[in-house]
Give the backbone structure.
Amino acid sequence: MDRQILTKVQKTPSHRDDDVQKQSRGPQSAEHPLLNLQRSIGNQAALRLMRSANIQTKLQVSDADDEFEQEADRVAATVMRAPDPQAKSEDEHEGILQGKPEGDKGLQVSQEMQSQFEGPRGGGRQLPESLRAYFEPRHGGTLRWLDGARRGLTIQRQPGTDYGLASAASRNKYVDKAIQLWNMQKSMKVEAFVDALMNEIKADLLSQGVPELKWHIKRGLGVDGSFDSKNWVVEIDPNKFSERKVTTVADLTLPEIENIVGTLYHESRHTDQDVLIIRMLLDQKKSVKEIHQETNIPEPIINKVKTTKFKTPLDKANVAHANLMFAVMYGEHKELLAFIMDNKQAIEGLEKLAGASNADDLKRAQPQVKKLAEWAKNVLEPKVKKLAAGKNLGPQEAELKNDLGELGQVTPKLLAAFDTALKMKNPTKDDLEDLQDLTNEWLKKLDEAYRHLEGEKDAFAVEDLVKKEFEKQAAAKAKPAPTKKK
Ligand SMILES: [Zn+2]
């Protein structure tokens, strides 16, 4: 629902990451994607990805210099050595990527994907799309455009998620529009660009039975995008589109445009999801009032869904997907999302704490840390206990148990480090290194848990597909006559 943490976590590299950067930065500012991967998603997640298929031996990336490669190898070795406590539960749940069972653990990579990075076509220049999906949002400018046309890759999405904006037709129409605007309307104001894209999405959604789509563009909102289901409005902050000040389309880099295109689609996707949830609840013979009480979605929206004739009834897979979303958005596992949605400021404060370098920074973070401590004590800890005692947990619950368990383990360490730091006299940046690292770790755990929630998993998957399509078309436009590589 709210992409805030996602975008922010990665902008605050920890000390250790700084060290890696210092050692490894070549003459170009581009970084080796392996370093990015490890930094972005952490050792465990990187491990899971790399264990899948033969990524660790086959991953080849552009013409990075030797120093780069060595550093990447070192990171890869570290990552591969790390224990993987999540491997089991990862095995049990359905990843976004599925296909031919390969090896023992982790996400499974389809045959098609295997051939992509083993085959001669790539010539060692292509990264598998699954990995690129992890790199892209985080490292806007650093990832090079790939030479030549990239083959389209189908990511098999989870069952029951092929509705609304997830369809290829919707995606292609939207990306066509985005490419057209980006090419023809460089002097367009960023706000107008957003309006044009949102209008495109709106027309599509309405044609598919979503009652309404509203959006609100406001600089200084603090998050790049967010969907507020209570008011049924997508909120967008153009100040978050770039680190620089941007006014027109021409001010944006291509990766920034790609991110905007993806963000708007992601947030709008949440309306699709809510409509699915409403339909499921209506099918259960719940009244409009009851549904409103359970979800806080405005009654007029629910009413309209009720009177809409949808082309196809929900199938079993749709219902299963809707149930999982309901549980983490409005139901018995809504705690995490509720915390994130209700505590944007506290989370923002913690993000700043990750860069704390003096006593003033600590003082500023104090109220936010206090909020976190209260939430941990009153909500997180009891929740972890409850999940741990639970029997017959479904895959989402097992994952949540794992994710919240890890978050619950980092939290007291973070709080203790904060207390220690508070007692220091005039602490320097170096004195606060532990605190910074723990804060980053905490944010990363929060981000991971958040991305695993059914609704976010789906929205990020749909977003990634749009970004890839955009990238493909943009690359085709930018290089009308691709030269053949030897
Ligand atoms: Zn979302």
